[in-house]
């Protein structure tokens, strides 16, 4: 949940230059599967899309201001982006510009913040006009 709050703070900070989207994928540690001792929630393996939608609502509670999408039951988004368990991406004009490491170890909000800071600086410099007299 702390990671989700960090993500939400990042999204709020960069709302002027980026659109943020959370995509809920297959549950990494379902309560009826490979259970993690530090799992924040007791979510069983999704049997249908309705199960996944219910579980995704828990994510929405952690970041209520961020749009939320839910992966299909065949895990098409997760497979296409290699997102399992959790991962951060920046996509511009249908091209992956930043791909963070696989979570939980590779999930680094600080790397994403650095990329966005650099991008914002480039945007500001592009809009700066220097006139010599």
From TrEMBL:
**Can the keyword Oxidoreductase be found in this entry's annotation?**
yes
Q: What Pfam family is a match, any one? A: T4_deiodinase
A molecular function (GO) term: thyroxine 5'-deiodinase activity
Instruction: Write down what this protein is called.
Output: Iodothyronine deiodinase
**UniProt keyword Amino-acid biosynthesis, yes or no:** no
Q: What keywords are annotated for this sequence in UniProt? A: Oxidoreductase, Selenocysteine, Thyroid hormones biosynthesis
**Family listed:** Belongs to the iodothyronine deiodinase family.
Quick one: a GO biological-process term for this protein? Answer: hormone biosynthetic process
**Biological role stated in the UniProt entry:** Responsible for the deiodination of T4 (3,5,3',5'-tetraiodothyronine).
| Gene responsible for this protein | Dio3
């Amino acid at each position: 949940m702390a990671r989700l709050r960090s993500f939400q703070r990042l999204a709020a900070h960069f709302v002027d230059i980026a659109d943020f989207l959370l995509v809920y994928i297959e549950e990494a540690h379902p309560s009826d599967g490979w259970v993690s001792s530090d799992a924040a929630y007791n979510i069983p393996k999704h049997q249908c899309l309705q199960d996944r939608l219910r579980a995704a609502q828990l994510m929405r509670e952690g970041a209520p201001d961020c749009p939320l999408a839910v992966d299909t039951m065949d895990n098409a988004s997760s497979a296409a982006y290699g997102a399992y368990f959790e991962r951060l991406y920046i996509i511009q004009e249908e091209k992956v510009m930043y791909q963070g490491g696989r979570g939980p170890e590779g999930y680094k909000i600080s790397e994403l913040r650095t990329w966005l800071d650099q991008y914002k600086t480039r945007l500001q410099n592009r809009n700066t006009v220097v006139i010599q007299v």
